[in-house]
Each structure stands twice: as structure tokens, then as C-alpha cells.
Amino acid sequence: RLRMGEYYSYSVLSTWLERIAENMPDIAKLIKVGTTIEGRDILGLKFGKDTPDKKIVVIDAGIHAREWAAIHTASYFINLIVNGREEDPQIQNYLDNIVLYIIPVLNPDGYEYTRTDKTNPRARMWRKSRSPKACAFDGVRNSCCMGVDLNRNFDFRFSEIGASRYPCSEIYHGPSAFSEPESKAYSQFLTSLKGRLEAYITLHSYSQLWIYSYSHRKFTYAPDIEETRRVAAKAVQELGRMYGTKYRHGTGPEIIYAFSGGSTDWAKETLKIKYSYTIELRPGYEGIIEWNGFVLDKNQLIPTAKETWAGVTVVLDEVTNQW
Ligand code: 0X9
Ligand code: ZN
Fold first, then answer.
1. What is the pTM of this model?
2. Closest residue (by CA) to atom 14 of ligand 1?
3. Residue of the nearest CA to atom 11 in ligand 1?
4. Backbone phi, then psi, for 29, in 5-degree steps?
5. Which ligand is nearest to the CA of 157?
6. Over the stretch 100-154, which tens digit does the pLDDT of each residue have?
7. The CATH number of the domain where 313 resides is what?
8. Which atom of ligand 1 sits closest to the CA of residue 251?
9. C-alpha closest to that of 64 among 152, 168, 195, 178
10. Are 46 and 29 in contact (CB under 8 A)?
11. Structural domain includes residue 273
């Protein structure tokens, strides 16, 4: 059992997931999405008894290495389901009526690298995967750097906008769509759920935003936009009721910036999911981008996770209550 409100190494988190699956086989199963470039297993838990008629919801976090609050939030959700289900009929209802996958760290190599910040202070702000160096001539010299922004590597309008072809960029999209083992494995995992996957939620930080498709172009919306927007509006309202945290909702280009190659647009488009959301957690964003927005004070971790759960339950309720 892990105490919430703390950050843990990927190996501690992995062992925790394994123990949960061992000790509660009737509610949780360990799943392996794939293997990272450095050989780590991308692990998650599958909650609820799987029967073919049940709708599926997938929640992930940590595709960006430095977004520790997102990883904590996904871990908190797992802890809540495992340890809070007996007192919470709403959670019991989810376990009975849907299948919920939670993958707390999609980019464990990057996450572990950010945890080496004690010896390498710059490491804490790492965003990408840890794929080997690639080189490109940037106009001045041939520059070589490690890592791909996995949230630019999905096969939706790959490389079109808000992504870079230079390996030294923070938003390097990689040589081709799904060139990276992490994004490729994850796309195959999500594809295997096609038809029953009703909601996909990816947790990021920060800016306090609830984002839906599409991300590449302003005023360009995916199918079910009215429904998507209605549920997003309700989710941010519920989220805000807890501590007064103010979220905005909209498409990326409307409320933050345009980009392509992200997981939610790909999932929405390819898998025809009804609800596909990117959530940017605390802190808020006030005109200037503070570098340390990714370093959320530990005392904010639990409130952040709790309010996010309040928003996410709006989506889970939609999925649970429609047949
Ligand atoms: O840029 C990203 O990949 C995400 N933001 S982050 O700061 N966590 O890196 C997603 C931003 C969502 N924006 C759009 N959908 N345009
Ligand atoms: Zn992110």
C-alpha cells in the first residue's frame, strides 16, 4: 500500500501495481502495454470484470516525463478504486458496470530520467522519451539529441503542425508516425479495444484545461462535438466545485495552441471513441509559462488528484449510464 501525496520511482510503482493484481484478482488485473526503448515494461491495471457487453474506459498519464502531478493523479485513482471502493458506492458501480484501464506512466524511461535531477538538475524538465540520438542539420550544424515527444508521434496528421523535425527540439515528432516502441505499443493496445472503447482520457500538466478534438486546426471539430463539449463543461464544473479551481474547456487551438500527432486526436479519429479528452492539471496558466509549473508542491498533489477525479467521474457516469 502506497501513501498518496508522494512521488515514487517507476520500480516502486510497478511493484505496487503487481501487488494489487496479486492480492485482488477479482477486481484488478495487471496488464502490460509494451516495452520501452530502454526495456522497461509499460504496466497498467484493468479494473472490473470483463464481459463483452461492457464499455471500456482508458485513463493514462506520464506520456510526458516531467508531468509528475499527472502520474500522481493516475496513481491516486488506482489507490481510490482499490482502497476506497467499499465505502464508495459510485466506485462499486463502476467496477460492476464498466471496464476501466489505468496506465499511470506511459513514458517510464523519461520519468526515471527526470528523477535523476539530484545529480543532473536539468533532467527534471525532460519531456520526451529516451530513444537514442538522432541527428539533423539545423541550418548551422548537424545537431544530435535523444528522445521523441511521444505526444507528437501518433498517426494523426503526423508532423503537420506544432511539432518539430529536429531531434533536439522538445517537440520532436520522431522519424515517422509510431516509430517509437511506446507509442506503437500503446496504439496497438488501444486498437485492440476498438468498438467497446467509449472514453479515453490522458492526463498532462499543466494549465487547468479540459481539451477535446481536434488539435490541429481552429474551429475544426470531431464527430459528437456537441456531446463532447457538454460533458466537458459538466466535468470542469464538477471539478471546480471541490476547491474552486478554475478550468477552461475547448479544443487545443481555441484555448492553448495547435499541434498534431497527439494521442487523443488519433484515438478519437481512428477508434471512433465518443469521449476523448486531454486534461491539463494544476497549476493554472497566467499569461506566462512558468518553468516550474511542472514542479507541483507536494501539498497540492492530493487536492489536484481529488478534484480531477470529480471531473473524471462525470465522464465515467456518462459511460456507465448509457446502454
Ligand atoms: O503539447 C502537448 O502535447 C500537451 N500539452 S503539454 O503541456 N502537457 O505538453 C497537449 C496540449 C493540448 N493542446 C492541444 N490539444 N492543442
Ligand atoms: Zn504533457
1. 0.98
2. 252
3. 252
4. -125, 140
5. 1
6. 999 999 999 999 999 999 999 999 999 999 999 999 999 999 999 999 999 999 9
7. 3.40.630.10
8. 15
9. 152
10. yes
11. yes
Q: Where are the alpha helices (DSSP H) in 167-262?
A: 181-191, 225-243, 252-255
Which residues are tagged catalytic?
280
d(CA 161, ligand 1 centre) in Å: 12
The answer to whether the CB of 128 is under 6 A from ligand 1 is: no
CA 203 – ligand 1 centroid, Å: 10
Among candidate residues 156, 157, 180, the one with its CA nearest the CA of residue 167: 180
141 domain-assigned: no
Mutate to test the pocket of ligand 1, among 170, 218, 256 (most ligand atoms within 8 A of CB): 256
Residues with beta carbon < 5 A to ion ligand 2? 64, 204
Give the Cα separation of 272 and 295 in Å (integer).
Answer: 35
Q: Show the low-confidence residues of the chain (pLDDT under 50).
A: 323
Range of 43's domain? 10-127+181-320
SS3 of 216, please?
A: coil
ipTM above 0.85, yes or no: yes
Is residue 97 a part of any domain in this protein?
A: yes
Contact 264, 168 (CB under 8 A): no
Question: Structural domain tally of the chain?
Answer: 1
